Amino acid sequence: MTDSNFPKIFVVILNFNGALTLPACLNSVFQSDYPNFEIIVVDNDSKDGSFEQAKSSFSRLHFIKNSKNLGFSQGNNVGIRFALEKFADYIFLLNNDALIKKDTLSLLEKTAKKNLTAGIISPLIMQNNNEDVWFAGGEIQWKKMRAVHIDAVILDKPYLSQYLSGCAMLIRKDVFREIGLFDERFFLYYEDADFSLRAKKANFDLLIDPSIKIKHLEQSNLNNSKTYWLVLSGLLFFNIHATFPQKIWIFIYTTMRKIKNSYKYYFTKDSSAKNVRLAYQDFKKLPK
Fold it and tell me: Average pLDDT in the 200-221 region?
């Protein structure tokens, strides 16, 4: 797993109750043909035995267990700091419900070597059926306050994206040196878009390489609080990165959304309206 002639890649996998997916994820990474990589599993205080199972099955890896669920940004930052202290050249963030191929790390490193201005590189991320695309690039829709996945390949060679998904991203160590780590105000969602925009402002390119494919099982769909976190983190993201004219529109747009959600909350008893309402309330408490 180590060859000093190749840049050192640390694969950081954040785990939270991943008993159904973490073993397969680790197996896929462990079979990589890249000669110089190490794996760090950071656990956000899982309760399903997945962390203990992984430690028993993969004793050669680095394991870090947090005392509570720190969320995506802070949890990954724990692993990133550890990797940088161990002189990582690249850090590959990978979801615990993603599967890579034997040559994924090797191909990503080759793409990085050919594209020196690329600070972050993403493979093409496929859905579980291996036929449909889950992420082929990201588009930020300022008027609708959304960051959306592009599900169609744009080119047959590496191409630029407005943002990249934290599901699978290879990051040069220089990016962290220039812009720091993930913003820990983002507990879940939009932290990857925020990190991407900060990298772009520091003149790093964001690349999708469609020739490199991995699979994502998308276990986050099982998260009952997904609506809450999408709204809360979306509000934070757009208020951080919007220009002054865009902030005027955001004020108008969010006011209309609040009115619409209040109607749902009081009159239709929409099950998601309560979470949306709570997200707006909690956004006021976030440090700006």
Answer: 91
Residue holding tokens 């990190």? 195
The 3-state DSSP class for residue 274 equals helix
278 — phi, psi (to 5°)? Answer: -65, -35
CA distances from 284 to 201, 219, 280 (A): 27, 29, 7
Classified as helix, coil or strand, 88 is coil
Question: CA-to-CA distance for 147 and 138, rounded, in angstroms?
Answer: 7
Task: Return the number of other C-beta atoms located less than 10 Å from residue 8's C-beta.
Answer: 18
Q: What distance in Å separates the CA atoms of residue 238 and residue 275, rounded to the nearest whole number?
A: 19
Beta-carbon contacts of residue 285 (< 8 Å; ≥ 6 apart) = none
Number of other residues whose CB lies within 10 A of the CB of residue 80: 22
Q: How far apart are CA 195 and CA 114, in angstroms?
A: 23
Strand partners, 141: 146
Structure tokens belonging to residue 179:
């812009």
Query: What number of other Cβ atoms are within 10 A of residue 159's Cβ?
Result: 16
Predicted local confidence at residue 6, as pLDDT: 95
pTM exceeding 0.85: yes
Cα separation of 111 and 118, whole Å? 9
What is the DSSP annotation of 141-162?
ETTTTEEEE--S---SS-EE-S
Q: Residue 163's closest CA among 150, 180, 144, 179?
A: 150
Cα dihedral sign, 284-286-287-288: negative
